[in-house]
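Protein modeling request. Please complete all fields; requests missing the sequence field cannot be processed.
Requester role: graduate student
Desired output: 3D structure, token encoding
Chains: 1
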Amino acid sequence: MTLTAETGTPETDQAPARTTAADSAPRRPSLSPSRAADFKSCPLLYRFRTIDRLPEKKSRAAVRGTLVHAVLEKLYDLPAAERTAAAAQTLVTPAWDELREEPGVAELFGAPEGEQAESLEAWLASAGQLVETYFRLEDPTRIQPHGREELVEVTLPDGLLLRGYVDRLDVAPTGALRVVDYKTGGMPREAFEAKALFQMKFYALVLWRTRGVVAAQLKLLYLKDGDALTYAPDEAELLRFERTLQAIWAAIERAVATGDFRANKSRLCSWCDHQALCPAFGGTPPPFPADAAAAAGWRTTLPLTAATD
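Delivered output (309 residues):
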């Protein structure tokens, strides 16, 4: 296995995770990279997002990430020779015109996010700068993606459904797979690399289980400072990672069955919309919605063996 960091000064990507259809409307209870990360960081946050489905405010940073992802996805609709930095900049405004129609997006620029909030024009320019940085990391005229914003999913033998969306999937003529993810923040410090790669290993596991091929490269592109993090997993590592996900899911199922989701106070609380309901901040969570959880397909009683352990 190999891990390679390419150029630049590491910086943690603090932008909130994007919400996708895999997170908001699963066909049955499933695990996605973002929801697994939620439970690992704070079980109560997982409950609020996945079980209670409490609304959350959009942020300019998160919406900028969505905008940049949309531009890079649309870039590959163009013929290869036309995928230039200038062409990509022309995609920013139409992509914003589509995005601003989503609930809660346009309002971000009606009321300032702080005393020195940037204007819409400056915000769009910052998105354009991130798009421009992408061209320092890859030459899109030489890439023909196999998939973009592609749903990948698999049901493991124990019944666990894994689902997520891959920003870009490249397949070489030899059949080798490369999984690419765009990040609009900076590259994490070395201590946080494992957390950054969690999402990519998730995708690699699903692709291995569905295609029988271990991805040759997992590639994270950090557009804030023009860095790239690449990793080559192996089969044994993916087997270990699968067991990790199964353990996370077992803990989630136990928490659902008991209604016991603990708060875990950390620096991430600064970005949480639910502090008023969090015991760590003096709040009281709403009653656990057991009936709604059962209706959504969750098992709300512990298996006999688990109950007697």
